[in-house]
Amino acid sequence: xxxxxxxxxxxxSASLKNLVSRSGWFENIKQGLERExxxxxxxxxxxxxxxxxxxxxxxxxxxxxxxxALERTRNQKRHELFxxxxxxxxxxxxxxxxxxxxxxxxxxxxxLYAVRWEVC
Length: 120
Fold this sequence. Notes:
single chain, mainly alpha, disordered N terminus
């Protein structure tokens, strides 16, 4: 009798490797956006220091406009960070669910064919 068995996913499969490699990629995106936010915060602090040292009203106005532009950019980057984090979380959940579905597969045994013989 010959049996056929469908097996569950191999833990070393491409999906699992894909999850591990993507998680590093996810972290790189997140860290890059966080780094940009820190740089913008630093530029805003420096601009505020310059604004306190400005003597003329025209210079103070220009510095305040620059600060507002930097703050606007910072806010956009924050939104990008939150949106990217949402996308990253959704993709990670999808990958994990996919792997769980594959791990939940059960083995099924069925007879493909049976051979019967007699020795005379």
